[in-house]
Amino acid sequence: xLAALLLSFAVIFVAEMGDKSQLMAMMFAxxxxxxxxxxxxxxxxxxxxxxxxxxxxxxGAALPTHLLGxxxxxxxxxxxxxxxxxxxxxxxxxxxxxxxxAPAFFVVTSSFLLAELGDKTMLATITLAADNDxxxxxxxxxxxxxxxxxxxxxxGAVAGxxxxxxxxxxxxxxxxxxxxxxxxxxxxxPTMPVALMVACAAGVVALLAAVVWRLPQRWRPPVLRTPQSxxxxxxxxxxxx
Length: 241
Prior knowledge:
The protein is mainly alpha-helical. It has one domain (2-223). Helix content is 76%, strand content 0%. Helix 1 packs parallel to helix 8 (134-160), helix 2 packs antiparallel against helix 6 (102-116) and helix 2 (20-31) packs antiparallel against helix 9 (165-188). It is globular.
């Protein structure tokens, strides 16, 4: 068991470095409390890796991961558009939002569950569980992923103190759209080279940004509107989530 734990920890930790899940962890740490993000990632990872070791131990690679990837891609595009849309809060709602961790926990957990279904770390965990002690693989793979994403959370939490909220919101939406486009390409064209997939996904996001930028001010998402000056010379506030 110990050997399987150490092997799984090392494999998943290395596989997670630079992965989209690590970038997501950094992104969420810009917007939410670090401990909420870490707890949500731990919960999501535990669930996904239980499923992974069960598949590897009992069924083999029978899950239609390409279909799951397509569904996850669609959901990430929706998340990106929703993030751009933003929301206006009253003072009372903003105060409650600062105190409530449950909504943030749900958002991060569901996002990571979608992102990890069919991801390479899930496939690696399935493979490891097929030939090693499943309990050791489960614990080791979960700890490896949480450790890797924990590093990203530290970076995000530190950077979040120095970045304006408008930039954070736009960056979060762009990353969601990028991940979504990449997952859709991965699902529909799995043989496409990874570099080309990334380039195409980035091109789709850039094209969408150019189209939105050409829209009249009133048709743009609130966060992308250029602040206008009122007669007193004060800038019109931008609605943020």
